Amino acid sequence: MILGALYFDNFPHGHYGTIRQQFWSLLHFPLQLAIVGVVEGSQQLALARYVAKNAEKVSNSIIEYCQTENLDGQKLQDKLMSLLDYFELDSKLETAGYYDFVLDAIWNVGNTTGICSAENAASYNNENATWPDEIVAVDMGLSNGLYAGLGMKLPIDKLEEYTPLEVAVEGWRLVYLYYWSSFCLLIACLIIFLFLIRRHKADLFDFTSVITRFIVFGIGGAMMALMGNDVKLYNAISSPALLPICVFLLFLILVIDKLSSVWCNWRLKKSGQTYALEYEEHGHHEHHSSHGSGHGEIHESGPLHGHVAHDSISGLEDMRKSARWSTHSDTVPLASSTEYHSPGQQSYAMTPLMSPPLMSPDPVAPPHSHTPAPGGYMPVSSGQHYGA
């Protein structure tokens, strides 16, 4: 979640509207929920694919032994035993019962003559034909044992009506739903953020970033639409491309954002036009004469305020470095040196006071006139105090 927020949740610099900033802050609650949902959904979908892949392996192995090789008797029994030993259902307490169940089913298959003969095996593909109960027991026992071996806590009342694999399929539908719902919510929040923090006229970067996110949002909605068909949903969960699709879509956003920003900066630098400032503040200009100057506007455009020309992009990199930490660079050092300065030299806020200390004020001077110290400090009182 933190890694995703580092790029997709950049903190905007400067003031861009009080109401919009409040919406920007409030939207972080659904944004972070969406990030957590995507991460947790990825883990659950990975487990679902593991079960679906191995269940498919069991079914394909049985079809190969029975319909392709037409094994029978001891040979068929040995093949099924090797398949049972491969999954090691006897190594866990949760799956020990399924191991005994499949072991009994394999023994019944081996004692059934001609169960996988060429004639009988061909009839299993007919429209109304069914597989023998012994072979179905082997298939279902192994598949259910795989899911139970993951440590899932299944409700007792559900197991009285459904097998663990049937319960798993219904759970996968919910996982698939909140995974892509969280993904779509994440992209929707990112789209809203782009509109909230934009303060300048839209350029190529704004168009490409928004359009790309809308396309990704549409793809996420299309993936959710697969829930309307159970076969397509099961195939999607069993596919190894499900999680890489999400990663690829996020990577696509990164690439297009980077390319469009590089292109826009190159065009701006080539044109020599003014660029949008990262932040602006209104204040007073310095008074250059005894009459002073009017109320003006100060544009801060770099780490040294007022030192970057607005008609070029020479200080753009320095401005990025300064704005990245959302702070203003200080042009005044904490202390210029450890030596003392005379009153005529440049002084800073933390310049040490001259020694010896200031003399008492002139009694002839007006009572309310103060003489500032060279270090920038002002005496608290003009009178002298003796004693404790």
Given helix and strand content, the structural type is mainly alpha
Q: What strand line-up does the widest sheet have?
A: 1-2
Question: Span from first to last CA?
Answer: 62 Å
Number of strands: 2
Question: Helix share of residues?
Answer: 55-70%
- The pLDDT mean sits at 73
Topology pattern, helix = H, strand = E: HHHHHHHHHHHHEEH
The proportion of strand residues reads under 5%
Number of helices: 13
Q: Which stretches are poorly predicted, pLDDT < 50 over at least 5 residues?
A: 279-315, 321-351, 372-388
- Major sheet details: 2 strands, antiparallel
Radius of gyration computed on alpha carbons:
37 Å
Q: Could you say which overall geometry the principal axes of the C-alpha atoms support?
A: elongated
Biased composition (Polar residues): 324-349
Biased composition (Pro residues): 354-366
Keywords: Membrane, Transmembrane, Transmembrane helix
Region (Disordered): 282-388
Fold blueprint:
Layout: H1 2-8, H2 18-26, H3 28-68, H4 73-87, H5 96-110, H6 118-123, H7 133-148, H8 156-159, H9 164-197, H10 204-225, H11 230-238, H12 242-271, E1 281-284, E2 295-298, H13 316-323
Antiparallel strand pairs: 1-2
Keywords: Membrane, Transmembrane, Transmembrane helix
